[in-house]
Protein: V-type ATP synthase beta chain
Amino acid sequence: MAKEYRTIQEVAGPLMLVRGVTDVAYDELGEIELADGSRRRCRVLEIDDGNALVQLFESSTGINLESSKVRFLGRSMEIGVSEDMLSRVFDGLGRPIDGGPEILPEERRDVAGLPMNPAARSYPEEFIQTGVSAIDGLNTLVRGQKLPIFSGSGLPHAELAAQIARQAKVVGTDEPFAVVFAAMGITFEESNYFVESFKETGAIDRAVLFMNLANDPAVERIATPKMALTTAEFLAFEKGMHVLVILTDITNYADALREISAARKEVPGRRGYPGYMYTDLATMYERAGRQNGKNGSITMIPILTMPEDDKTHPIPDLTGYITEGQIILSRDLYRKKIEPPINVLPSLSRLKDKGIGEGKTRADHANTMNQLFSAYARGKDAKELMVILGEAALSDIDKLYAKFADEFEAVYVSQGFRTDRSIEETLNIGWDLLRILPRSELKRIRDEYLDKYYDKK
Structure:
């Protein structure tokens, strides 16, 4: 029988100190029983000479140092996983909040997961269609990849996240596809938007949603992505599904880490964030990937808002080191009413070359992608020159490039949050735009593709 301790020494914010404990381990779960019989959960953060520093999952209000009791459960945080979790909505600790019944777990798993052996990883090389042209055509997402979205405060990253979650699919295969969606530190309105967005399109039938609200405790925010990734690992590697994990907002997660680190009086790192934040983010991001001999895979899209739109802020900076590229949302494009406002030039998918081409998307994909990048960059330069010197100073060909840049943003990038484009449609729209330019300017495309697609009309 578990020992009960009445030796609570101190409560400070989300932390509590219990003296004189024995046989208690780091990360072990505990249960606090209050004088009125109600119970709250906690987790061991530190053990030092019989003293346990524990972290509360709920508010510390009402905990009486003399009459409250603590007992430790002999296990770390777990979640019961099952295929029945699909189409369900849970809170940040994996408890159903959709009015449905409790899940009967097929097995219980530690949410910390197990690190994937690098030698057991398969190389990501299969195209995932998101239905968003600026991603599919230019910064392609590959199965098993980690591709974050860098946003700014007030930009529509929530709408883009919901759109990708609704539309994403592995093309050319009948293998099961699922979405695990984890939201951290969001408002009730945002939570409701995500749930309703999934329900109205029927996408919820293949999705598992974890919702952690802004008024939930910081420790729950830290547990939410781990709950989601443990569920994803079960669906991917036990049930053979292709799983897309969307985590929003990583900034709220990192702020919760900072809050708890400050409460523990740890030495702060850059901007007050704990020095171990890189390690913490890496243990989360690196749970994505493919394993040799397993059909399933985990592809991850973490979404974060850059404080003050600063790419050098610790959160986007460290995320960029760990992941394979980034999709960047632009405030200037948002002001022009372009939806989604994806700035394709600084965006990058380091694995895109592995997921495109003959048998995956289309043979002309790489050539048209390079030509669109080149033409758009030159068109942006021409527009900047036009602002300084006036339109009369531009050559005829520069005017065409400037026109191309405008059309590219209005037609290719701006497709709205309700349009689902196949990769064929995206490539054909690219060719329609390239016809604005004379054939002699398209130096990055092979003649065989120009003959087949440019001269089509």
Notes: The first strand starts at residue 4 and ends at 5. The chain has a mean pLDDT of 90.
